[in-house]
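To: structure desk
From: M.T.
Subject: fold request, one chain
Message: Could you run this one when you get a chance? Sequence is below, nothing fancy, just the single chain.
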Amino acid sequence: MIYLDNAATTRPCDEAINAAAENMRNNFGNPSSLHKAGIEAEKVLKNAKKTILGKLGLEGEIYFTSGATESNNTVIMTLPKTYKHNGKKIVTTAMEHPSAAVPIDKLCEQGYTAVKLAPKDYDNFEQAVINAVDKDTVLVSVMWVNNETGYLTDTAKIYNGVKRRNPKTLVHVDGVQGFCKAPPRTLKADFVSLSAHKIHGIKGIGALFVAKGVRFEPLLYGGGQQKNLRSGTEAVDLIAGFEAAVKAYPDCTEKYAALNSLLCERLSAFEGISINSFNNTKNILNFSVRGVRSEIMLHFLEESGIYVSSGSACSKGKQSGVLAAFGISDENADSAIRVSFSPYTTEADIEALAEQIGKGIERFRR
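Reply: Done. Structure tokens follow.
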């Protein structure tokens, strides 16, 4: 199997699997218990928080969630209770993941307004986001790295500019695709949503970073775990795996750049190929094979054991509309393929992919 759909999910690394299994066997206590077993479990949480904060390079607190969907919803859906006097305008983008976009739409049904900016409309996208902020803006919510094209947003620039225009405006970053992959200097926010299974951790665990001095209301109520802000017994085993995955993820900057360049070079040999990724982290490449619909090419590649995507996995095969925010035509969106690398991806994988794409073009293009 040649797995090139790592933006959808990643294969859990041995370190994460072993850490989770070790905790299941030997450290299964409830971290809220006062006895030794509970104290040992609580140590896992503290160590994981320290590791994740160190990787983020930010000062604040980590709250563990079931994943980035919960983290995004926690920030967005509790705004009316937490910062109801700060305004009712939200500045966001037209390329957000549904787990942020849909909650924002729900707030608009409650009387909020949302300005959704598209990268295709601006030469300086970050400055456009900053310029959209006014005295009534309660939240700016942006992706760090887009999951369909790899487009990199300098959220640090946005954060600094937003705070100059309105210090009360909060900045939320969906950091799922950027964590451990994008340059840390491009990240700064009041809130950052994370997910373990995008970095070879285990599905079902995520985190929400909250900067010092920033508040939020609970989305879930119950036993009062995590400072009464995220109730529910912590998934210690998954959290141990999350920390192990963070520690194990290597610096693949040069590797991803080389794989990306190799794939672009091989694709250039074919007629009718359009590259849809620009200003992107090199672990994601989106391109269109004109004349061959995405689903046809995807399943043709699958026959050879090569797994790619036609877009966001959360869209279940449907066009998400995100590519339109980058100025991609409907025709090209209909034939778009997303390839996403991992530390396990090899040059041989790319060569095999390119060879099969060539065969697919010969077979299906009309």
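Reply (cont.): Residues 306 and 353 are 7 Å apart (CA to CA). Let me know if you need anything else for the meeting.
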